Each structure stands twice: as structure tokens, then as C-alpha cells.
Amino acid sequence: MDFDSVSEAEELWYYDLHDLMRMAEERRRKSVGDVVTFVANYNVNFTNVCTFRCPLCAFYRERNSRDAYFLSIERILREVAEAYALGATEIHIVGGLVPELTIEYFEELFREIKRRWRKLTIKALTATEISYIAKVNRSSVKEVLERLREAGLDAMPGGGAEILNDEVLKVIAPAKRASEWLRVIETAHELGIRTNATMLYGHVEKPRHIVEHILKVRRLQERTGGFLTFIPLKFKPWNTKLYEEGLVRDEVSAIYDAKVIAISRILLHGFIDNISVYWVAYGKKYASALLAFGGSDLVGTAFSEKIFNSASPHDSYASLDELAHYARTSGRVPAQRDTFFNVIRYL
Q: How far is CA 16 from CA 35, 41, 82, 257, in A?
């Protein structure tokens, strides 16, 4: 079965977990073999102030909050220098939505990073951020992306998608729309900017919303071929409005996590080769176990990760050697990769 419709795909949710694991692992071996990849990356979050105030987010702060911050370009460049010294090959740059951080701010930042560290890959700005910058700048999304690409943008993360269903978004992120995320990402792909795709699960969604999201990503990939990997992101409810208002009281179960990873692999087989298990959301040992459900990538070292840490404080750093260890404990071959999933070296 190709699982082309939401109703067909939703049936997978009710399969026996061992059958799902077997199906996912068969597809994983055909797509990528036994290698588990990860990148040496450093996260820069330029501000935690955000006008969207999404109920799902524990990271954002009001402008007048005591712990609100804005990073100057010079401050970010000092962080990038540290990242480069640590061996990072990728700088992951995302943050809040505020009108004073204009397109010129990002153009200057990207140009200066490329001037100082030409070989560093800049993976920056979610589709939501690009859309917001375009509105503030009174430009088209295409123009913003072209200008940022010219300044040094190499790739984009997949954040901001949450769940690509407007009824769910009304609850968890009312300022966002599924069609806008898809439109911005499709424009990026048309301009040759490769991106990731994400899905935030474990809040108020139902199984049909999960498979609907994955199928929307699959259809876009059929048209553009621009996605590098699919990353399911486990929602951490603590310190969010969703938790405070009683809409989400706890994390979803381990079985739920395993089903999400496995169904992602099954539905995206032949379309997106890489299914990433984001260890920051799961913990390293648990993430290594979830690799057995079709996962093939542990994302990266995540130096200086702040967004997930805002909801659930945890060990938010991993060395390449640690990630290699956890790949081996899952019976796989660890490999350091670049942003575009080219293997740099086996570990």
C-alpha cells in the first residue's frame, strides 16, 4: 500500500508496534543502509522576544521582561568564533519575531560570517521568520530569500511548521498558517535553497493530523526535491501556556514517540531519505533506542541550544564522540556529515 490518502495513512497508527518497526527498518536499510549521521553545529538564538507569543513556546519573552535579550552582530560573531574553534561546520541561526531585526541586520550578519569563516555553512531562519521579515520589509518572500542567499544563507531549518493543520494551529500557534509555511518553503526550494522539514507533535493533535502533516511534506517534496531530512520534534509542555491552561499536562508516551518515528519513515520512503531523531528532545540514550524505528540521523552537537532547554532543562550539548557512541550502541555505523548530508568522516 502506498498510503496516499490521510485515511489510509492513519491506519498505520493502529498497527502493532513491532510490525511498524519492521516496516520502518526495512525502508531505512533500503534508503540509507546502517549509517547514522550527525553534524557539528552551533545554535545562535539572536533574541527571545517575539511578537507571535505562541502558546506552545516556552522560549519567548515579552519585550519588558527581565530576561529578554537581543544579541548584537558583534556578540553573535564572538559566539561564531567560539563555534568555529570547537570544530562546528554549521551555524544554526533562529530566534524571535521583532520588527527592529530587519533584513539588513541579517544581511550584515551573514556577510560578516562568510567574510571571516568562508567554509562555515549558514543554516538560518525558519519559514515563519522569512515570512515575517518580508512583511516588515514590504517585500516578497522571493526577494527576501534572494537577498539573504546573496548575503550568505546556505540552507534553512524546518522549524515553524508545528502541525500543518490550521485547526490545530489555532490552539497552539494562532498567528501561523499551514499554507504560509508551505509557500515559503516551496519558494526557497525553487531558488535552490535546501531546507529541513519538522513536525511538532505531542500536544493537542490527533493521529490523523500527524499523517496529514507528513503527507503534505511528501507532496511538496515530490514537486521540489528540496528537503534534506524530516525531523519529528517532541513537544515539551512545561513553562508553556498550553501547560498553564491545562490543555497539555504531560509528555506523550514512548510508544507514541516510536510510532511517530516509524510512520515518518514509512510514509516518506522514496521521497526523503533521512529521518532525524532529535536527541535534544529525547535525551541521548532514548534517542539511540528510537533509531531502531527507522531513524538514520541524530541531527547534531547542538552547542548552545536554548529553545528546547526553555521548556525542559537538560544536557543540551553532545560531542561528536558521544553521538558516535550512541549510534554504535544501536548497532549502527556513526558518521559526521555536513549540512547537506555528505559524509565527512566515519567515526
A: 26, 36, 47, 14
